[in-house]
Design brief:
The chain has 524 residues and is α/β, with parallel strands linked by helices. The protein has 13 helices and 20 strands. It is globular, with a radius of gyration of 24 Å. It comes from Citrus sinensis (Sweet orange).
Length: 524
């Protein structure tokens, strides 16, 4: 196949290597690429840059690969069917028969992937990056650029990045940086409390779900309260209730209820989202007839959401425990909020091992928590915050430049900044020679990240240029408009909605001049 020819993409080998390595001609060794993080996105970035002739350096703060999978509770397992959490060129071993493997098997799979493609020699373990800073000539005016980096190309003849590593004498100077630091680690998001009403007045132990010491011996025989109602909160509460039983019941304290679906139901949901369902979804930049068709078929989308909600209400005692959310199932999945219901969750509630408590606010006291609207404190020994992470702040903090920090999280930053990561190789138009991978949410995050990694490698190999900054902004504004249509107030810029997953992948295929094959499967 000659340069520029298209290729067909199947579900199991999306954008396979044959689609783009033919473009990788010429030496790339002289270009230095730094990849920060050796989680799933870091491994993918390393693999595809290596295959395109580069010699990347991967900086990993911990002693091993895996990212968030390397530090999780015992009961954690995939919340995506493994067939949708699989590398396109490295299948799960036949010995893994479960649809939702546990975290140990996920780690074994990632280890095998890294070994198979010889990624370990490129990784510097126990090497924490403290900051990155762009070095530019004094006469360079970044604010006057019409094209990304001034040229729309991946590398600059003048600008470099300094990568500063903890306890190192000298910084590493590189031509391009790929940030793969993820959303779910390092900087916990915990509420603020009035003076003398926070954890400092509590005689018990306060942890975050990210803590490494969240072990069985710590929670056994203790009264535990878990704060939150997303994936980690529900998983932690279920594990504590399973270990301690009714003698020391666990309390799950939350502000907002979300739809939780059993794993078998999630599989059905994934399978039903195929190319036909694209017809009823408004896509960014759609034409008049596509808009009209989606508008006329939109009641089917609403109806399917109501059917799911009715099934969940009928199957589980949601009304009995006041667990019916105030938002639709469609709104939730459009915001990348997939929460899998742990097995026997409501059995534990009915049996007394798990208590569900909804409250808008709470404070600490000496022996527990003071719940808004309650007259007596909730006595507890351990409080575990499963309230997420300050992802934007973590991303911002790695930049030494205040200008780049403001581009990430400042009030003057345009709203497209994280939507753009969903479409164009994780590239921010105002931050040259840098890309971000693994930051966006997606119901099929591994495949989403692999698609972007391949597209980024294609761009680094010099086979495509970016459009003007204004065109990129316009593209992303259209994306945001479509996302807000379904997600409403729950819209998050980092989310690649399950409804627009195929569209997102199709755009990446278009960037690489590959044809996405119209299959009857999800995430093609």
């Amino acid at each position: 196949m000659g340069k520029g020819e298209g290729c067909q993409i199947t579900l199991d080998q999306q954008l396979s290597l044959s689609c783009f390595t033919v473009f990788s001609s010429g030496p790339k060794m002289e270009r230095k690429i730094a990849i920060i993080g050796a989680g799933v996105s870091g491994l993918l970035a390393c693999k595809y840059t290596l295959e395109n002739g580069f010699k990347p350096i991967v900086f990993e703060a911990r002693s091993g690969i895996g990212g968030v999978w390397s530090q999780t509770i015992e009961s954690t397992k995939l919340q995506t069917p493994k067939s949708f959490y699989q590398f396109s060129d490295f299948a799960w071993p036949n010995s893994v028969t479960e649809t939702f493997p546990d975290h140990n098997k996920v780690m074994e799979y990632l280890q095998a992937y890294a070994a198979h493609f010889n990624l370990f020699p490129s990784i510097k373990f126990d090497t924490k990056v403290t900051s990155i800073d762009r070095l530019v000539p004094s006469d360079e005016d970044e604010h006057s650029w019409d094209l990304w980096g001034g040229t729309g190309k991946p590398f600059s003849s003048s600008g470099k990045w300094n990568v500063t590593v903890q306890e190192a004498r000298n910084a590493y100077q590189v031509d391009f940086v790929i940030l793969c630091i993820g959303r779910y680690s390092d900087l916990p998001n915990t509420p603020d409390f009035p003076m003398n009403k926070g954890p400092e007045v509590f005689d018990g132990k306060v942890l975050h779900s990210m803590n490494d010491d969240l072990a069985a011996e710590l929670i056994n025989g203790k009264r535990v309260t878990v704060i939150g109602f997303q994936k980690s909160a529900v998983d932690v509460a279920a594990e504590v209730a399973n270990r301690n039983g009714v003698r020391y019941p666990c309390t799950l304290l939350f502000k907002t209820v979300h739809w939780m679906v059993p794993d078998y139901f999630l599989w059905s949901t994934f399978r039903s989202l195929n190319r036909w369902t694209e017809l009823i979804i408004h896509n960014p930049g759609e034409g008049f007839f596509s808009w009209l068709l989606a508008l006329s078929l939109s009641p089917l989308l609403w109806l399917s959401s109501k059917v799911v909600e009715s099934c969940l209400k009928w199957t589980f005692p949601l009304k009995k425990y006041n667990m019916i959310p105030g938002h639709s199932f469609l709104n939730q999945i459009s915001s990348c909020m997939f929460t899998v219901l742990p097995r026997n969750f409501y059995d534990r509630v009915q049996g007394g091992g798990l208590s569900l408590m909804k409250s808008r606010s709470f404070t600490f006291c000496k022996n527990g928590l003071v719940i808004d609207g309650e007259t007596t404190p909730l006595v507890t020994d351990i409080v575990i915050f499963a309230t997420g992470y300050k992802s934007d702040e973590k991303l911002k903090n790695i930049f030494k430049s205040t200008y780049f920090q403001k581009q990430i999280t400042g009030s003057s930053a345009p709203l497209y900044r994280f939507s753009l990561f969903s479409i164009r190789e994780g590239i921010h138009p105002q931050i040259p020679q840098l890309a971000i991978l693994g930051y966006a949410d997606s119901p099929s995050i591994l495949r989403t990240t692999e698609m972007r990694s391949k597209c980024l490698a294609h761009f680094l190999a010099g086979n495509s240029n970016l459009p003007t900054i204004k065109e990129m902004e316009h593209n992303v504004m259209n994306w945001e408009k479509s996302m807000r249509l379904y997600a409403g107030e729950s819209y998050r810029r980092s989310c690649v909605s399950v409804l627009l997953q195929k569209y997102s992948n199709d755009q990446l295929c278009k960037d690489m001049r590959c044809n996405s094959k119209k299959e009857k499967m999800v995430f093609g």
